[in-house]
Design goal:
By secondary structure, the chain is mainly beta. The protein is built from one helix and eight strands; from the N terminus they run αββββββββ.
Length: 143
């Protein structure tokens, strides 16, 4: 038969008090403002689309897009840019733009068209995105 060790009551009380204190430290304050009111900026790259080049008649254009959040004050904007790599044939399209911010800009759609490039084509595309001066990990998409 097993015997359970008796734990003194003061140890149980000490553990309960420290557990309650740690939960209170990690819980948000009751009057805390929602995250949207605190200047949140985020972006998700979800797709890429290529308008292939047809030399010598016209250059191709790569457009990328997704959703973003920017709850900075209305009238401000956030910079977004990309460079991409396409292989077979080699193309290195790029583009940049600005996206508007405001209290209601949450999961808003965005897109940036690249500069004309004579080598843009359809197929696998590695996109290197920069949002608000921060480089994100590259993503491989089908354009």
């Amino acid at each position: 038969m097993f015997r359970y060790a008796l734990v003194p009551r003061h140890r149980i009380a000490a553990v309960a008090v420290s557990l309650a204190a740690s939960v209170a430290m990690t819980a948000p304050a009751v009057g805390a403002a929602p995250a949207a009111a605190q200047g949140v900026k985020s972006v998700q790259l979800q797709w890429a689309e290529a308008w292939p080049a047809d030399p010598p008649f016209h250059s191709g254009i790569l457009t990328v897009g997704g959703v973003y959040t920017c709850t900075e004050p209305a009238g401000t904007s956030v910079a977004v840019s990309f460079s991409a790599l396409q292989i077979m044939p080699l193309a290195m399209p790029s583009g940049s733009g600005t996206l508007p911010c405001g209290p209601g800009v949450i999961d808003a759609p965005w897109q940036v068209a690249g500069f004309p490039d004579p080598d843009v084509h359809s197929g696998w595309t590695n996109v290197f995105l920069t949002f608000d001066g921060q480089a994100l990990l590259p993503q491989q998409l089908t354009a």
